[in-house]
Write a structure and sequence with these properties.
The protein is an all-alpha fold. The chain has 2 domains: about 90 residues, Cytochrome Bc1 Complex, Chain D, domain 2 (Orthogonal Bundle), CATH 1.10.760.10; about 80 residues, Cytochrome c-like domain (Cytochrome Bc1 Complex, Chain D, domain 2, Orthogonal Bundle), CATH 1.10.760. It is about 55% helix and about 0% strand. The two termini are about 25 Å apart.
Length: about 190
């Protein structure tokens, strides 16, 4: 995982020279797709897949990165100089990419059942939809990279990543790290 970080940094350095007002959406998308996957499905641990995410959610996240309301240095740097229309166009493109495929391999059905029960108990399926496809300003979680979900949930729990309101921190307050890992396992295996 850490071995990949220099290659991500090198990719971001190369693409940071790309002007935000590049002529085409394709040119603007190059740095996004370098890390998040050409087809919107990330192959890099702890980097989310963006295919199939709700367009409004993507637009808001891009705006938050651009305006440093959400701090992830690489993303903040890449988004500098993009105009609102650029963000909308990038989000419109990304949302049309196919959603990620579920994680493969054998499935631990007991673990899936525990996580489903936990997600229903804490109403994850209310905001993220019953099929975890997300809607409006709520992200798609079905098929998301397991490592990324663990990272994101831990960040919400320890308040280093903030949502639009306190609901994520409130929900995760009573959830153990083992349960976070079970939730990520469950979500990564949904279509």
């Amino acid at each position: 995982m850490r071995v990949l970080m220099p290659s991500i940094a090198a990719t971001l350095f190369v693409f940071s020279a790309l002007p935000a007002d590049a002529d085409t959406v394709d040119a603007q998308l190059a740095p996004c797709l370098a890390c998040h996957g050409v087809k919107g499905q990330s192959a890099i641990p702890e980097v989310p897949s963006l295919g199939g995410q709700p367009v409004f959610y993507l637009t808001i996240q891009l705006l938050m990165f651009r305006d440093k309301l959400r701090v992830v240095e690489a993303m903040n740097q890449v988004m500098q100089g993009f105009k609102d229309d650029d963000l909308r166009n990038i989000a419109a493109y990304l949302t049309k990419l196919p959603p990620p495929d579920p994680a493969g391999g054998p499935v631990d059905f007991d673990r899936m059942a525990r996580a489903r029960e936990l997600s229903e108990q804490h109403r994850c399926n209310f905001c993220h939809q019953g099929n975890y496809s997300g809607a409006e300003n709520v992200p798609r979680l079905a098929g998301q990279r397991e490592e990324y979900v663990v990272k994101a949930l831990r960040e919400y729990k320890n308040n280093t990543r903030r949502g639009y309101d306190a609901s994520m921190a409130d929900v995760l307050y009573l959830i153990s790290d083992e349960q976070i890992q079970d939730l990520a396992y469950f979500l990564a295996r949904l279509r």
